[in-house]
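hey so u asked for the seq, here:
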Amino acid sequence: MINIVMIEDDVELASMLTSYLRQFNIQVTNYDDPFIALSKLNLTKYDLVILDLTLPGLDGLEVCKEIVKKHKLPIIISSARSDITDKVTALEIGADDYLPKPYDPRELEVRIKTILRRYNIQINSTTTNQKDKIFKLNCDKKEITKNGEFIKFTAAEYEIFSIFIKREGFVISREDIYENCNILSSDDDTNGSLAVILNRIRQKIEANPKSPEFLQTIRGMGYRFMQ
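ran it, structure tokens below
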């Protein structure tokens, strides 16, 4: 099991990333307070640090300096700060990678494993939890199964639901769906086509579509798929 410490004050984002990475045998412990995180690094062995730059009480670049000074740990900066100076400074003081938000969690997973290989840290590629997933996406065959049973989707339903599976655990807005869906356009959705398609998806995947277990509506934000 890969053991990672995350220093991130966006608790919801940290929770989603923790849930997503767990399926790849990556255990994440998050601290939203940088001072507590730095003290825990002295007590617990971690394989890698995921560090936000905008933190309460102490700037992330200062946290990065402290980690580099006291620990030989790979650091991935995960930040919404777009100033190129921050990126250059972070890399100059010892960060191994800089991932600007927002990003696909799959990219974070790949970068984690790439950096750990560089540090010669053993990676267990077995994804036991992935095998136990209820829904599985086969991009080559353009198929989605539930407990091994093929689900018959229309092209639009397949494309939209595949977006949710790929970004499991993350809140996806209507705008995100339109941006990543080739079939459905927001300009053409005057009659609520997206809502109709999402309802049809729920009819096919949920035991009770009116009280969805997997594809949930997050009021004012969008939708989230969890399994």
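The chain has a mean pLDDT of 89. The CA atoms of residues 139 and 162 lie 9 Å apart.
lmk if thats what u needed
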